[in-house]
Amino acid sequence: MNPDRALQPATPAQQRRQFQADLRQAQADLLEAEAELAHLQAAVNAFRMQCRLKIGRLLDEYLELRSQKQALWTRLQLLHQAQEFGIPYDEDDPFWHGRDPADLYDDLPEDEILPELDDIARDRAAEKRLFRQLARKFHPDLAASGVERAYMTMMMTAVNAAYSSNNLDALRDLADELDPAMVAELAEIETKEIRRLREQILKLQRRRRRAIRRRRQLRQENMTKLWQKARELESDGRPWWEDVRLDLLVLIQRRRTEIEELETAVAQFE
């Protein structure tokens, strides 16, 4: 092969064929990632439904008792504070409104064994870290061209809106958006068809990254971990659901006893 010919830039036809091949590969990769996510989501949702059918009544009873215990504990702490201040506790007195009573801490493992089915804690620290990363990526003052500045201004507006509304998922999605330099590179592609193919490829790649990230997040959720634990136990022939039911009955009785003790303590103060 003539070495000079090998160094020649690709013709538009060659670029088009390459991008078409890349597009087909990106489509296949996306289908695979989304199929894996859908399979895991369906399995976890089915397991969630099983939880509600098999232990839903007991779980609701336990959560109600836990709420009662927390309310009694809060009242007891306020009564303790009233005694320390040397004044009576009156829940209608504005002085007591907005007080920060001590939280209840105990070492019972029930929340690890039986996580609340619909409770997903918001990680404010993660939001702040991601916001700072996105601000460095999309701040308009860092733009190298007019095209980048327009794009970065639009993205920074979206970042600020997501952060203001405490929407961590939206911030994560924005992290997958195009780098400003890539936007400028797309703008420089002269052939409309090739630019369109490149945009399609990048869009599919972003969707694949999001699917992979969401699958990774789903694997970290309590319900997914519980499902995996159940699969492992059931594969060994252990009656997982019966074990959980018995654990719940023990926890319910324990909470009832704790509530009775707290009611007695509150009555003594009042």
Q: What's the gist of this structure?
A:
The protein is mostly helical and 270 residues long. 76% of the residues lie in helices and 0% in strands. It has helices at residues 3-6, 12-85, 110-113, 124-138, 146-164, 168-175, 180-187, 192-220, 222-235, 240-269.
Domain tally: 1
User: Percentage of helical residues?
Assistant: over 70%
- Give the helix tally: 10
| Beta-strand content bin | under 5%
The whole-number mean of residue pLDDT values reads: 80
What general form does the structure show? elongated
Uncertain regions spanning at least 5 consecutive residues: 99-113, 115-122
How would you characterize the overall build of this protein?
With 270 residues, the protein is mainly alpha-helical. The chain contains 10 helices and no strands. The protein has helices spanning 3-6, 12-85, 110-113, 124-138, 146-164, 168-175, 180-187, 192-220, 222-235, 240-269. The model is unreliable at 99-113 and 115-122 (pLDDT under 50).
